[in-house]
Amino acid sequence: METINKELVIIGGGPAGLSAAIAAYDQGVRDILIIERDNRVGGILNQCIHNGFGLTRFKEELTGPEYAYRDFELVSERNIETWLDSMVIELSKDKIVSVINKDRGLVKIKANAIILAMGCRERPRGALNIAGTRPSGVYSAGMAQKLVNVDGYMPGKEVVILGSGDIGLVMARRMRLEGANVKMVCEIMPFSGGLKRNIVQCLDDFDIPLKLSTTVIEIHGHDRLEGVTIAKVDERMNVIEGTSEYVPCDTLLLSVGLIPENELTHMITDKFNKVTRGPVVDDTFETEIDGVFACGNVLHVHDLVDFVSQEAKLTGTAAANYILNGKQEKGAKYNIELGEGVRYSIPPVISKDFSTPQTVRFRVQDVYRDVFVSVTVNDRVISRIKKRVVAPGEMESVILVPKLFEEVEGDVIRIGIEAE
């Protein structure tokens, strides 16, 4: 068994891993290895052939493959080593990465620092507890996207979609464009889980109905899906009697949430955010394990890939600083307290001696209209930003400016939603 040493190992060659590698290289780290289990880098972007990517980062509208190729070119220009078709099977607290590859066999890599960028996966049907049989024709939205966009197969012609996450919304439009009859998108929550622009461009523009507070309660069919039974639910997610409806269809797409891929992370830490299901990190995106960092959808599920890249750039820079300058003594921190209407924030802490503007991203619990996003320290208002609408499907952010904290006393920054 081969054993090698690397300064920086990045697990995952999606947008987070690529951006982190580029940032670390630009800070002076040269011995970098990206490990990717697929046969090419880019992650899920490779099957997202619709446009809308890159508006924040590149100031132009790109498709997913175009966005991924931009990062691929930047990595190639820097000659950053990448292993494809390689699976990490074990991770230890002393930063030893065990990788298996058909050409190299089993390799152990001793790293000075590690960045976790494994992304996320879709929640499967088995997690939903839907009654009925197990016929063909039931797909996750991401699998259907791969079948249509990459493999050139059409999953079906009469389609019902459960869940209004962004992948489900995009696939509603994609299936319609390919000639399918998309009958409806059902969403168990009283609001959509996707971006507003996707609701407009993917559903409204194609007259595809969105049924809120509605779910699939039964699947029908033996060999092939024949139909589903849908029903309305109350505020406690209980089915409302007398609201069930049978909908004939041959395809059911599930867009019912994303789960960070943290099986490897669980090997080294048990500190996870109960809401995001990602590891707990500090303001440099370092986990409780010295020299192990996390970024992208393995940390928390993002709505825009541009934000993944921004976060990964900060993480790559922090990892490079750790490698080049050693472990730094970490000073006093502000803890981020979740105020009214806020589900989680990343990062959960901010260094008190920060000298450059710091971005804190967060998601809200419900749809709020005509409200303020407030930032306070010990009841002193630092900022108060008017918002016409905030929703769980869209990530919000506040930028903390150092000069506003110069004469502030306290240890807790509170971010919350306030009515007018």
Brief rundown of the structure:
The chain has 420 residues and is of the alpha/beta class. The protein has helices at residues 15-26, 64-77, 141-151, 166-177, 196-203, 305-325; strands at 2-11, 32-35, 51-53, 62-63, 81-83, 86-91, 96-101, 105-116, 120-122, 131-132, 138-140, 158-162, 181-187, 210-212, 214-221, 225-232, 245-248, 251-254, 258-260, 292-294, 333-338, 342-346, 349-351, 358-364, 368-377, 380-390, 396-400, 412-419. It starts with a strand and ends with a strand.
Q: How far from one another are the termini?
A: 64 Å
> How much of the sequence is in beta strands?
35-45%
What value does the average pLDDT take? 95
Count of domains: 3
Helix content: 10-25%
Unreliable sequence segments: none
Structural class, by secondary structure, is alpha/beta
Largest sheet: 7 strands, mixed
- Record field, number of beta strands: 28
The CATH superfamily of the largest domain appears as FAD/NAD(P)-binding domain
**Which descriptor suits the 3D outline?**
globular
Tally the helices: what do you get? 6
- What would CATH call the class of the largest domain? Alpha Beta
Which value, in Å, is the CA radius of gyration? 23 Å
Blueprint of the fold:
Layout: E1 2-11, H1 15-26, E2 32-35, E3 51-53, E4 62-63, H2 64-77, E5 81-83, E6 86-91, E7 96-101, E8 105-116, E9 120-122, E10 131-132, E11 138-140, H3 141-151, E12 158-162, H4 166-177, E13 181-187, H5 196-203, E14 210-212, E15 214-221, E16 225-232, E17 245-248, E18 251-254, E19 258-260, E20 292-294, H6 305-325, E21 333-338, E22 342-346, E23 349-351, E24 358-364, E25 368-377, E26 380-390, E27 396-400, E28 412-419
Parallel strand pairs: 1-2, 1-8, 2-5, 8-20, 10-15, 11-18, 12-13, 12-18, 13-14, 21-28
Antiparallel strand pairs: 3-4, 6-7, 7-8, 9-19, 15-16, 16-17, 21-23, 22-24, 24-27, 25-26, 25-28
Helix pairs in contact: 1-2, 1-6, 3-4, 4-5
